[in-house]
């Protein structure tokens, strides 16, 4: 009898382990299917994004080799970059607001200070329909917080050089699902696409409505 009891106990343990493994396998399969659905699910119509800077200002949009396809670096055509208002391109909900990577030590008083990593102070906004925008290298902690609803033109922060940044500027992206795509502003393509060479374009902001900072 003792031998039979021990054998039954071992068999029962194997069955429990088998059930657990099957359950884990089902959960993993569901996760894979859900991830694939999220990736393949079509995005909604592109929102009417505007340049994330003050109404009427002219800015230089550029990229360079290794920067990342469709990533945009922005510099004002007049005045200094440091401290310029960064505005929401379109209304939505803040899903990230804080520090991406390491801040480094570049400031307006010490622009050649130690370089950081990543995006520094940054904000990411969900606009619905699987569209998001990203704003990086902000001067100070963002002026908005996660979960906050923002309007087009609302100030998110100020232009700076935190993170992996060589000079004060705004790094900006428009993302469709998980993919960064060419940024459009006021219904027209920006002209910044591949990063196979260094080039720039000039655009004037029509971000003329929205909340005050």
TrEMBL record:
Keywords: Membrane, Transmembrane, Transmembrane helix. InterPro entries: Cell_wall_metabolism_enzyme, Dup_hybrid_motif, M23ase_b-sheet_dom. The keyword Lipid biosynthesis does not apply. The keyword Transmembrane helix applies. The chain crosses the membrane at residues 20-41. It comes from the Bacteria. GO terms for molecular function: metalloendopeptidase activity. Residues 83-180 form the M23ase beta-sheet core domain. It holds the Pfam family Peptidase_M23. This is M23ase beta-sheet core domain-containing protein. The lineage of its organism: Bacteria, Bacillati, Actinomycetota, Actinomycetes, Micromonosporales.
């Amino acid at each position: 009898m003792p031998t039979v009891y021990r054998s039954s106990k071992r068999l029962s343990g194997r069955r429990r382990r088998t059930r657990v493994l099957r359950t884990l396998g089902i959960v993993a399969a569901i996760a894979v299917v859900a991830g694939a659905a999220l990736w393949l699910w079509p995005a909604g119509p592109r929102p009417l994004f505007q340049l994330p800077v003050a109404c009427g200002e002219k800015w230089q949009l550029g990229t360079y080799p290794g920067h990342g396809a469709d990533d945009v670096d922005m510099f004002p055509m007049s005045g200094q970059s440091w401290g310029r208002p960064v505005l929401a391109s379109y209304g939505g909900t803040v899903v990230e607001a804080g520090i991406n990577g390491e801040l480094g030590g570049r400031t307006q008083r010490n622009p050649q200070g130690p370089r950081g990593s990543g995006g520094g102070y940054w904000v990411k906004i969900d606009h619905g329909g699987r569209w998001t925008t990203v704003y990086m290298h902000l001067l100070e902690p963002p002026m908005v917080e996660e979960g906050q609803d923002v309007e087009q033109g609302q100030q998110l922060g100020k232009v700076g050089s935190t993170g992996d940044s060589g000079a004060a500027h705004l790094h900006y992206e428009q993302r469709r699902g998980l993919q960064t795509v060419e940024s459009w502003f006021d219904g027209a393509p920006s002209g910044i696409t591949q990063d196979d060479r260094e080039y720039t374009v000039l655009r004037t902001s029509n971000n003329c409505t929205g909340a005050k900072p």
